[in-house]
Amino acid sequence: QVQLVESGGGLVQAGGSLRLSCAASGRTVSMYAMGWFRRAPGKEREFVATINWSGGTTYYADSVKGRFTISRDNAKNTLYLQMTSLKPEDTAVYYCSVKKTGTSREYTSYDYWGQGTQVTVSS
């Protein structure tokens, strides 16, 4: 089993930055793909970014490309999401996830999930 705990969310003004972290425990996730998803009020969970096991391959949603950066530190069993130039439409609960096989934009293909961290961007 893998337990995931997100942190780093909060309230920020538009144009600001936040860095989310996701600490994994229970077993090493260094050989697994990982991803970030988000769910805004009244909306479906949507893909944000994903990264392969080595960190050498990343994919982003068009809505965050150029503003968000996904990265990982396998020695620390931790995933990150650096968010810059935040917009009010980025307001959502952000979830960390682990996928035992390759990267994917489909949240249904992920095996483990954290509880989420709230990000609120004020205008």
Descriptive notes:
It is a single chain. By secondary structure, the chain is mainly β. It has strands at residues 3-7, 10-13, 18-25, 33-39, 46-51, 58-60, 68-73, 78-83, 92-99, 112-113, 117-122. Strand 5 and strand 6 (58-60) form a beta hairpin.
Morphology: globular
Question: What share of the residues does DSSP label as strand, in percent?
Answer: over 45%
Main sheet properties: 7 strands, mixed
Number of helices: 0
SSE order: EEEEEEEEEEE
Number of strands: 11
Helix content: under 10%
Radius of gyration: 13 Å
Uncertain parts: none
SSE class = mainly beta
Distance between the termini: 40 Å
Mean of pLDDT: 96
Which key phrases capture this entry?
4-stranded antiparallel sheet; single chain; 123 residues; 11 strands; mainly beta; 50% strand; 7-stranded mixed sheet
How would you summarize this macromolecular structure in one to three sentences?
With 123 residues, the chain is an all-beta fold.
Compile the SSE list and pairings.
Blueprint: E1 3-7, E2 10-13, E3 18-25, E4 33-39, E5 46-51, E6 58-60, E7 68-73, E8 78-83, E9 92-99, E10 112-113, E11 117-122
Parallel strand pairs: 2-11
Antiparallel strand pairs: 1-3, 3-8, 4-5, 4-9, 5-6, 7-8, 9-10, 9-11
